[in-house]
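Morning!

This is the sequence you dropped in the shared folder:
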Amino acid sequence: MAEQKNSAKQALQGLGKKLVADIEKGKNPSIDVTVRTLSNVSFDKKTKKLLLGEKTATREFFNVGHIKKFVQTLEAAKISKSLLDEGKHASLRDVYYQGLRTIPNTKIDLWEDQSESDNAIEDLELITDCSRERLNVNANKMGSVAGKVVIEDKGDTIDWSRMGSGGWSIPSNVEEIDIKKVSAKYVIYMEKAAVWERLHEDKFWDKHDCIIISSQGQTTRGIRRLLQRLHTEHKLPVYILTDFDPYGIYIYSVIKFGSISLAHMSETLAIPEVRFLGMSGDDATNYDLKRYFIKLKDVDISRLKQMSEYDWFKNSKEWQRQFRMMKQFNAKFEIQALTSKGLSFISERYLPEKIRKQEFID
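The structure's back. Tokens below.
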């Protein structure tokens, strides 16, 4: 970890030295940033990951169109350098407030909202080739895990099977966690915290020798990294359980292939071998769930069309079939629809049945 912190400091110092050299040479100080848009992202069929291209954009200090983002990037670098020097960590929200002020002699705020400070941090990741976590910036904790796993975190030994009803709260930075002992056959990640609570109360992880992980909606970077570590370091299959809707399928897509906005992090976040466990369009018939359909909205239909045209989906016969089913239904449905069959139907029948039959979508 000391080497990582030193390399992050060196990268930030390198940025500063480059700008000083520009000034000393009488040049317009500039920063080259890799473009983080779909036009510079490609799907690598061999690795099955979204990869960021080499297209860059130059931001110059003496350019009215560039100066705000230029200054925002330097402010993010300054905050990160201070954190590394002090050996402290800050949340993304902390970074926003630390840099929230008006640029002197103007009426311009350094950033208008947190999305701008978040973007500055992500740009800094590309400039320094250091992850946000290595720059000592963390996101909020938004996940729980349970299973027969023992870890060591900052000197504390933690047993995930003995964390009570709430499970272990997953931090945004899992790089420093030492996974000491694992007894599990697979990992299930679910988008709904309520579903995780049902499986945890039913001790699904104990009865079926697995690990259960959840966030609330879109998975965090910390969870994605933890899933990847469990998969790569401990050879555990990872299964994804979401609602049958465009957003649930997108969550699966992000975990499997990576995301457009974080294509530069695919090597440490994406898991190409991950498989989709449910809910699927076939479940509507197999488990008699059609009465629980929720009509698609225009935004759902638009999202569905967009996803069906992604390179990583358009050549998949099975995923195209699932998209057609959703369109034909003109409806989506939630995991909790299974509760109509009984409170513990999901843990006692649905999941064991699907896993036993290997009813996954790749």
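Headline: The chain has a mean pLDDT of 92.

More detail when I'm at my desk.
O.
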